[in-house]
């Protein structure tokens, strides 16, 4: 427990938590006072319906207020005299590539981008797609959109051209902001080539993209090697750098959309999770302050890319709304060797490190000497996000990474929640390794059984949330019906998280993983249906069924059963496996690479034709001894066939 912490005891947490539920208006209203409002909120403070029995789902916070997130995250600090404070220490992929950007410089950068966007006709409510590496221009581009009321849609610059095209066609941006290339590890990846492919695909479908702005990232690729289409492409340095450094902010209604971010669901194409202004601001800023117990002299490093929600809430918005100094890193923690992360900790005197269990596990594998050769004395707090942290990884992170000095905040949340939901507070919560512990202020979780009944006390079941919180997603872009169906229809009156959990006798929550058809690969969500759809694109694939299996580094891996078109022998030529894997990488991106392709002359199906995934999961986990009841299978012999083809 830490005496100087914002929340320094369990009693203080309990008291504030109670207050946050008993009187949300007083609790969040008090927090809201520390931000700038162009127009204050009115009554009611929060106008929400979380219960489909009572009508359509609607979520509105700080009704009637007007604000601007960019103003609050940047200008407010400059105006308060903190313009010279470092906002970003940027570290490139290669050693000795670094730079420093102050809050005043961020303001200049943001205004230039915003002025350019305005000059090409981007208006309040227009969409802007951002496909960029982790360079300061990426969060600056997001903030520039927020400044003028444009809705950003950041696509992780590791997604394929097909995935990017799908997201572009869904959000119909006025412009794409990209960079020539990115370097993560030894080899540069030409982002511009991927964007060109995506643009061509969009045009084939009748969607013209008026503008593509290319940041010349010469550290990753020489300008002369970058494909460039005159008439469509412009260089960032040519059009944005000369812009003026003043740009008025657009005052935004509390509920106007701020951004959409695509994430995988259990069915169909990725969903555009849409967040709004004022509530998201309160949620991301308040959790950042309390969960990381933010102090003005902190140097904070979140290893997530801005292409994920963690990068939105805990790189761009949460930290900057608090005027924090942070490190952003273009590379990967294992390049040029597994000591890189700890090298950065010493180089920048990082105090708070926030990363994912998958990264921790990949570092464990390389051995402790990569860690212990660095001092790491500056660290005071460690964070974990994205998937349940296994006890071995927790112990190593605590004992080796943090020298047994630093508490670990294991933060459970989602793209949809926008902010930490279940998490320790470092000065107040007694930790239990592997548990995300207790709900954050204003968050009221519950555990339901199969029948949707709420369980009391110690319990295991589905994790749901009983009431709205400020930064809850507001809708799925363009599809409110799917939003209601996915999250609110199954258990009326609750937000359904898609996660299973256990609550212990002390009220601590232990997340047990997804209960839907979503695989959590290295902390990233991949829908089984998406991978199956990608495999189906190959002419040899007649049918595919994808399930998760336990993976030492990634947490969960992707296991694909593939039935081939008539005429193929089992097992087929090895080259087909490579082609199928390549197809998934092309359609979705390298993160969705199947770990195993298991040839399947037949899939276990019920008589009505439904694939029995339970059986496939058992086979993938090598637990065929406990297959359970197979009597409902249309053809029980397929199981034997599958087992014979394991490893072939
Ligand atoms: O299954 C949970 C898991 O990640 C899912 C959310 O994924 P995404 O929207 O991509 O956001 C990831 C970053 C917030 C959840 O439904 N998850 C996330 N954090 C944890 C976790 N599972 C267990 N413990 C966590 N700390």
Automatic annotation (TrEMBL):
Residues 80-469 form the AMP-dependent synthetase/ligase domain. It is an enzyme of class 6 (ligase). GO terms for biological process: acetyl-CoA biosynthetic process from acetate. Pfam families: ACAS_N (PF16177), AMP-binding (PF00501), AMP-binding_C (PF13193). Residues 530-610 form the AMP-binding enzyme C-terminal domain. Keywords: ATP-binding, Ligase, Nucleotide-binding. Residues 13-73 form the Acetyl-coenzyme A synthetase N-terminal domain. CDD domains: ACS. Its EC number is 6.2.1.1. The keyword Ligase applies. InterPro entries: Ac_CoA_lig, ACAS_N, AMP-bd_C, AMP-bd_C_sf, AMP-dep_synth/lig_dom, ANL_N_sf. GO terms for molecular function: acetate-CoA ligase activity; AMP binding; ATP binding. It catalyses: acetate + ATP + CoA = acetyl-CoA + AMP + diphosphate. Belongs to the ATP-dependent AMP-binding enzyme family. This is Acetyl-coenzyme A synthetase.
């Amino acid at each position: 427990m830490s005496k100087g912490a914002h929340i320094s005891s369990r009693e203080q947490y309990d008291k504030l938590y109670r207050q946050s539920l008993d009187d949300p208006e007083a609790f969040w209203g008090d927090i809201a006072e520390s931000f700038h409002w162009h127009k204050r909120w009115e009554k009611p403070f929060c106008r929400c319906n979380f219960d489909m029995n009572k009508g359509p789902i609607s979520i509105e916070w700080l009704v009637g207020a007007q604000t601007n997130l960019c103003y609050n995250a940047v200008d407010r600090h400059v105006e308060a005299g903190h313009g010279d404070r470092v906002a970003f220490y940027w570290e490139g992929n290669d050693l000795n590539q670094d730079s420093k950007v102050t809050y005043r410089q961020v303001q200049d950068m943001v205004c230039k981008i915003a002025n350019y966007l305005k000059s090409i006709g981007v208006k309040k409510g227009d969409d802007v797609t951002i496909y960029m590496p982790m360079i300061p221009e990426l969060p600056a581009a997001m903030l520039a959109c927020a400044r003028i009321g444009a809705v950003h849609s950041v696509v992780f610059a590791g997604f394929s051209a097909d995935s990017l095209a799908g997201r572009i066609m869904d959000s119909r941006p006025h412009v794409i902001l990209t960079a020539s290339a990115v370097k993560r590890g030894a080899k540069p990846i030409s982002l511009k080539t991927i964007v060109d492919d995506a643009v061509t695909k969009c045009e084939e479908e009748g969607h013209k993209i008026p503008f593509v702005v290319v940041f010349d990232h010469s550290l990753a690729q020489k300008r002369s090697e970058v494909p460039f289409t005159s008439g469509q492409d412009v260089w960032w340095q040519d059009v944005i750098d000369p812009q003026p450094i003043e740009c008025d902010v657009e005052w935004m209604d509390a509920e106007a959309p701020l951004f959409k971010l695509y994430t995988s669901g259990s069915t169909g194409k990725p969903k555009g999770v849409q967040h709004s202004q004022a509530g998201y601001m309160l949620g991301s800023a308040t959790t950042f302050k309390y969960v990381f117990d933010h102090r003005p002299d902190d140097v904070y490093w979140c290893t997530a890319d801005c292409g994920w929600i963690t990068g939105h809430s805990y790189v761009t918005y949460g930290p900057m709304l608090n005027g924090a100094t942070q490190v952003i890193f273009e590379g990967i923690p294992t390049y040029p060797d597994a000591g890189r992360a700890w090298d950065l900790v010493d180089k920048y005197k990082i105090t708070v490190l926030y990363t994912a269990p998958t990264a921790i596990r990949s570092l464990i594998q390389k051995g402790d000497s990569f860690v212990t050769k660095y001092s790491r004395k500056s660290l005071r707090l460690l964070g974990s996000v994205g998937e349940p942290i296994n006890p071995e990884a927790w112990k190593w992170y605590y004992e080796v990474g943090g020298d047994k000095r630093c508490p670990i905040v294991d933060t459970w949340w989602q793209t949809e929640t926008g902010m930490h939901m279940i998490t320790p507070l470092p000065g107040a919560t007694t930790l239990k390794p592997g548990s995300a512990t207790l709900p954050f202020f204003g968050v009221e979780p519950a555990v339901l059984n199969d029948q949707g009944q709420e369980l009391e006390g110690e319990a295991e079941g589905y994790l749901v949330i009983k009431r709205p919180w400020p930064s809850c997603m507001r809708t799925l872009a363009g599809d409110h019906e799917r939003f209601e169906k996915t999250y609110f229809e199954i258990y009326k009156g609750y937000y359904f998280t898609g996660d299973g959990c256990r609550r212990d006798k002390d009220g601590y929550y232990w997340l047990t993983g997804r209960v839907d058809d979503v695989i959590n690969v290295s902390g990233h969500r991949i829908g089984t249906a998406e991978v199956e759809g990608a495999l189906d694109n190959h002419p040899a694939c007649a049918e595919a069924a994808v399930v998760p299996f336990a993976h030492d580094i990634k947490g969960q891996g992707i296991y694909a059963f593939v039935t081939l078109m008539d005429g193929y022998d089992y097992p087929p030529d090895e080259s087909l496996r490579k082609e199928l894997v390549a197809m998934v990488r092309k359609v979705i991106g390298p993160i969705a690479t199947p770990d195993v392709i298991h040839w399947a002359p037949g899939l276990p199906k019920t008589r009505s034709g439904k694939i029995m995934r339970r059986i496939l999961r058992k086979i993938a986990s090598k637990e065929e001894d406990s297959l359970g009841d197979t009597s409902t299978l249309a053809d029980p012999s397929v199981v034997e066939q599958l087992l014979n083809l394991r490893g072939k």
